[in-house]
Design goal:
It comes from Sphingobium baderi LL03. This protein has four helices and no strands. The chain has 80 residues and is mainly alpha-helical.
Length: 80
């Protein structure tokens, strides 16, 4: 598996201004961003074997990151 961090700027290119604006105006969106960063960091730690974890747990983390990413994308599309 790749151990490349999935930063929000890579996942949502060209939308960082919009992300920042939503972050400061919507506390729920701000929490989504925090949740994404926490899960993303956990995945990166697992992938680099800093803290080895089971494949099942790593898969669950990836699913959680994807679900959060989908919620962020939905919020961005609704704010358009």
């Amino acid at each position: 598996m790749s151990n490349t961090p999935h930063t929000l700027s890579e996942e949502f290119p060209g939308q960082m201004d919009k992300i920042h604006a939503l972050k400061v105006s919507d506390s729920r969106f701000a929490q989504l961003l925090l949740d994404y960063d926490v899960v993303n960091d956990e995945i990166h730690v697992a992938e680099t074997n800093i803290e080895p974890t089971s494949q099942d747990h790593e898969t669950e983390l990836r699913k959680r990151r994807l679900a959060i990413k989908d919620q962020i994308a939905e919020a961005l599309s609704q704010a358009a």
